[in-house]
Specification:
Chain A is built from five helices and no strands. Chain A has 85 residues and is mainly alpha-helical. The radius of gyration of chain A is 22 Å and the shape is elongated. The model of chain A has no long low-confidence stretch (mean pLDDT 92). Chain B is mainly α and 221 residues long. Residues 1-35 and 126-141 of chain B have low confidence and may be disordered. Classes of the chains: A mainly alpha (85), B mainly alpha (221). The interface between A and B is large, with 35 and 55 residues.
Amino acid sequence: MRAMFRHPVRFLLDHRYTRAHASEYIDGELGAHGHHRVDEHTGICPRCARLVESLRRTVEGLMGLRTQPAGGVAEDVIRRLRDEE
Amino acid sequence: MIPAPADPPAPLAETPGCEAPHDDRPRRPHARATMTLDDQHLVAQAQDGDRAAFEELVRRHADRLHAVVLRIAGSNHEAEEVTQEAFLRAWRGLHGFKGDAQFFTWLYRIGVNEARRRAQRAPAPGVVTSLEEHPFEPRDPGPGPAGAAEHHDLRLALEGAVRALDPEYRTPLVLRDIEGLSTADAAEIMGLNQAAFKSRLHRARLAVRSAVDGYLPEDDT
């Protein structure tokens, strides 16, 4: 937390940046500079570190919601297409 | 519930060309396999009036499209109607498909737009998806029955939180996080530029994270 007192403006800017770009960070869609900026900030800001980590776990959970398709939908569509002819 | 945004989806005719995804996140087979040279070949044949070729496209994409619109439209009945309608419209409008987008993003855009329209008109209560019928095995159920129960609770909480989102925010979450599409494909399907799509996805994730915070596993690092 000492960095917050040593460079308060930079800390605040990085704080806002991290909160705005946390999704891109965990998706690997930030450029090298942005990624490094978030890395550095989360190293000194426990709140942002928690946000990034909980967001990452949320996305992992969402990825696990994918279900197998019910099946049989295609045949119903094909039947309907043939009926429409 | 997050309020509906002011930027409506662009019309289908404005579908932009395909851009390669540029993220490093591992994609599911769905995202990689849906567009192949075979799709282009089948589309060309179908544009020449070969209905068997179009039926092959239906077999490739119908089940997955149904799964996507089910989460957006909210009921099996609506999802079946939307899926059938999407393919009918695609078949009728196939000559207007110029091939500057992937077939599946063009098709999904028709279906997703219709599902969003219906979801906005009549938000559907109740179950969004038939998890009990076709669940995926959890990747890491945790140690023993307690871990499995926690996983189940998290899953239910996530399902509820996704369902509670406005369809304009639920859709990017479904396409990107649940279905595993790339940002480029998902944005194209929604008719948004990537910056707008990412912004909406981030807000949706934050809303879900807030709703399930108590269910998330503790940080063990």
